[in-house]
Amino acid sequence: MVEITCPQCNYTKSIPIEKIPPGARWIKCPKCGNRFEYLKKEEDVETEKRDATPWERRLQLGLWKGIKQTIKSVLFSPKNMFSSMPVRGGWRDPLAFGLLVGSISSMFAFFWEFLIANSGLLKPFGGFSISLSSPIIFLILIFLSPILVGISVFISSLIIHLLLLLVRAGNNRFEATFRVVAYSQATRIWSLLPFIGSPIGWVWRSIVQIIGLKEAHETSYLRIIVAFSIPIGLLLVIAVGAFFFIIRAISL
After folding, report:
1. How many CB atoms lie within 10 A of CB 110?
2. Phi, psi of 127 (to 5 degrees)
3. What is the domain partition of the chain in residue ranges?
4. What is the reported pLDDT for 167?
5. Nearby residues of 4 by Cβ (< 8 Å), 6 or more positions away
6. How many angstroms separate the CA atoms of 105 and 186, rounded?
7. Looking at residue 125, what is its pLDDT?
8. 185 within 8 A of 149, measured Cβ to Cβ
9. Is 126 helix (H, G, I), strand (E, B) or coil?
10. pLDDT range class, residue 141, cuts 50, 70, 90
11. Confidence band (pLDDT; 50, 70, 90) for 131?
């Protein structure tokens, strides 16, 4: 997408890069009719080097084929997927994909956990029953899945981008990070596997995000890994501090 702004009335509109004819020099504002010169920005040139994802080309490929090819690319060819993904292609399509795949996969994850809770494999702890064994709680989680996934995508993107900025790896805008996190929800498809799917998906998603962020922000793996390690390091420091605090309190 290319953002065009009229210098006379400040009317702004986002236009797909492929709809701008090659060699176009003049643009007419649809609001005030002013004719002004189109100056191609560096970021527009960068966008031309990248192709829309299969999901973003679903109108040409077909819905099912667009979904299938995107999931396959994220899972098994993340380097190719994110090296060719536009870093400024809009928020709506990646979010829609993340919500679609993430919500359905989360529903399966809740379903398997519901089965475990009702199978008697997990015994109540301290006299408390397992809340997920309640059909009402289960149905609430099912209906809330899209909201939970959406919140998770936005919060994860924000935290990850802040960490990237700390290690000077956020070479592109927040949108690039958001697009990687949203498309990485394809790894939740592993939740369709009973019991072991969610842990596999979490590990796979972390790997995909590391590869995707490296390609989207055109930085090094070292910086990305350091950024991902910061929360782990903080948790270790807190855990060690709490351990020594408890030991000291007991010894008094």
Report:
1. 22
2. 85, 0
3. 2-47, 51-238
4. 95
5. 12, 13, 14, 15, 27, 38
6. 9
7. 47
8. yes
9. coil
10. confident
11. low
Q: Report whether 85 contacts 179 (CB < 8 A).
A: yes
Whether the full predicted model's pTM is greater than 0.85, yes or no, is: no
Tokens in use for 92? Answer: 């709506």
Amino acid (one-letter) located at 184: S
In the structure encoding, which two tokens stand for residue 234, read together? 């903080």
Q: Cα–Cα distance between 184 and 204 in angstroms, integer? A: 9
Of the two residues 114 and 73, the one the predictor is more confident about is: 73
DSSP, res 85: S
Helices assigned H by DSSP within 20-134: 42-48, 58-61, 63-76, 78-84, 92-119
Please state the three-class secondary structure of 151-215 as a single string: HHHHHHHHHHHHHHHHCCCCCCCHHHHHHHHHHHHHHHHHHHCCCCHHHHHHHHHHHHHHHHHHH
The b/e string for 155-171 (b: 16+ C-beta within 10 A; e otherwise) is ebbeebbebbeebebbe
